[in-house]
């Protein structure tokens, strides 16, 4: 029990730090009465490369920040809890791969916000849960997807004021990393393994 508590507290450290950083940046922007939008990704322009580093930290308004805060926190927490040994690697690879892809394929506009990171983390956790047969990972991902508000629809260009390209590149990054690190992570659920073993032992029908 003490070990689980320690593990949970460890898993909280970085997600809490990142969330506080997002809010601190927004408070600074509002207090100084400036706009940081030009720190976003601007595709295929050298000046827009800095957005790969800064765009997930910048949000258009308070609603944008509030909408992204809890999903990015919960998904980051799940990554750090279930993938302790490789959590930093996974998190930052999604962060930068999604940004690089966005710089290459996005529309010519400033792309800001942590939604690409959210989509990447959700895609990674869900697909990794499927591959590794861990129900808790799949459940967490689906709960966040439904709570965040129809993540799937965010991949389609219905609202051109929303960076659906950031969502797509996040998903691509998450899927890629789930496949690359398919052999690392939490152990598969025993119940799922037992069910598979029983199916393999049952004699199949034969054709004569």
Q: Summarize this, please?
A:
The protein is an all-alpha fold and 208 residues long. The chain has helices at 2-31, 51-54, 62-82, 87-105, 115-132, 135-148, 164-180, 190-201.
Descriptive overview:
The chain is built from eight helices and no strands. Helix content is about 65%, strand content about 0%. The radius of gyration is 19 Å and the shape is globular. It is mainly α and about 210 residues long. The chain has helices spanning about 1-30, 50-55, 60-80, 85-105, 115-130, 135-150, 165-180, 190-200.
Give the tags.
single chain, 208 residues, mainly alpha, 8 helices, 65% helix, 0% strand, disordered C terminus
Outline the fold blueprint.
Layout: H1 2-31, H2 51-54, H3 62-82, H4 87-105, H5 115-132, H6 135-148, H7 164-180, H8 190-201
Helix pairs in contact: 1-3, 3-4, 3-5, 3-6, 4-5, 4-7, 5-6, 5-7
Q: Largest beta sheet, briefly?
A: none
Spans of at least 5 consecutive residues with low confidence: 202-208
* Helix and strand sequence: HHHHHHHH
How much of the sequence lies in strands comes to under 5%
